[in-house]
Amino acid sequence: MPYKILAINPGSTSTKIGLYHGTTEIFARNINHSAEDIAKIPDITDQLEYRLEKINAFMAAQDVKATDLAAVVGRGGLLKPMASGTYRVNTAMLNDLKNRRYGVHASNLGAILADLIARQGSCLSYIVDPVVVDELAPVARWTGRPELERKSIFHALNQKAVAKKYAKSLNRSYGELNLIVAHLGGGISVGCHSHGRVIDVNNALDGEGPFSPERAGTLPAGQFAAMVLDNKLDHNDIAKLLAGKGGLVAHLGTNDTREVERRIREGDKMAADVYDAMIYGIAKSIAAAAVPVWGKVDGIILTGGIAHARILTEKLKEYVGFLAPVIVLAGENELQALAEGAYRVLTGQETAKEYYGEAVKALSLV
Ligand SMILES: Nc1ncnc2c1ncn2[C@@H]1O[C@H](COP(=O)(O)OP(=O)(O)OP(=O)(O)O)[C@@H](O)[C@H]1O
Ligand SMILES: CCCC(=O)O
């Protein structure tokens, strides 16, 4: 009997779950959380019980028993910067997530939910390629302020999964190629993958890169500082302006590119101008991502939900087609990538990595 693996990917408005036999998908579903439900529990960390109940109800309806599972694998959240791979969910990891030590993001719930369901079935729990995978080249870490170092926070799971998928389609290995991957979702991250390592990428959560449906992207720093001071904004206000209420949401009141394209078809000039500006920003980020590999790029992959949008992908091809072939792998492969990461460990192809919190790091320095 192949291993049964449950994969969980918590997003800001939904929890995606998938059941796999080995790496074969049996089902994958999106459990949508209504705006009304989410508004009642605005802090993501407090949504744990609510989401667990929804998952348990869904598993019961599908006749999936936790005791039948070999492993539960969740999307990995804001943790200490770490190497790519599959990690065992452990106490240090759970503590850092529950205490929001490195910030709040929907993906923080992945490991916690995986652990809770794994406990119901006495099986193993893992995360794979969390959003904090850090392979930045030393030169990419600098900013113009000694107090501020750039961080690697991006759609690591999907970026790595599609890059490996594309390499496989060429009968090449991921480690042989230089690829630019643009994950185009609610947030946008554009990574330069050089021989299997993401040596530069915009921090998609923290005001870097192009603006996106929900993220503000890079802002003029002086003007933004003045806006914060003039309006006496607090930490929470600033976080919302940068991630959640930036980009298309701020300009057009929607995070849905289908809605934006509908407005454009109906002649809405503002929608067309904002959409063009977003595409222009993405194109500039893609071109910038060619610099770390001296322009020697084997392919540019467009992925994420927005890569379904033809107007956008066609315009991007016009802008950056001069650099390398542009490949569209729309949607995201995150549930499949989670299941594959757990499967590699269950079958001994890979050893699960261990997460160490700050206490252990400090001891190792002594
Ligand atoms: N068929 C489609 N055509 C055009 N746009 C689409 C289509 N499907 C989804 N989108 C757009 O993709 C965006 C959401 O992408 P995605 O589902 O990858 O984001 P997410 O998972 O919410 O966030 P993130 O990818 O940042 O984690 C939305 O703006 C949505 O309107
Ligand atoms: C994956 C972290 C970045 C984002 O949510 O936009």
If you had to describe this structure to a student in words, what would you say it looks like?
- This protein has 366 residues and is α/β, with parallel strands linked by helices.
- It has 2 domains: 4-134 and 334-365, ATPase, nucleotide binding domain (Nucleotidyltransferase, domain 5, 2-Layer Sandwich), CATH 3.30.420.40; 156-330, 2-Layer Sandwich (Nucleotidyltransferase, domain 5).
- It has 13 helices and 11 strands.
- The strands form 2 sheets. It has a 6-stranded mixed sheet with strand order 3-2-1-4-6-5, with helices on both faces. A 5-stranded mixed sheet has the order 9-8-7-10-11, with helices on both faces.
- The radius of gyration is 20 Å and the shape is globular.
- It binds adenosine-5'-triphosphate and butanoic acid.
- The site of adenosine-5'-triphosphate has 16 residues, from helix 9.
User: Helical segment tally?
Assistant: 13
Q: Please state the structural category.
A: alpha/beta
Helix and strand sequence: EEEHHEEHHEHEEEHHHHHEHEHH
Any idea what the CATH superfamily of the largest domain is called? ATPase, nucleotide binding domain
- Give the tally of structural domains: 2
Task: Summarize the structure in short.
The protein is α/β, with parallel strands linked by helices and 366 residues long. It has 13 helices and 11 strands. The protein folds into 2 domains: 163 residues, Nucleotidyltransferase, domain 5 (2-Layer Sandwich); 175 residues, Nucleotidyltransferase, domain 5.
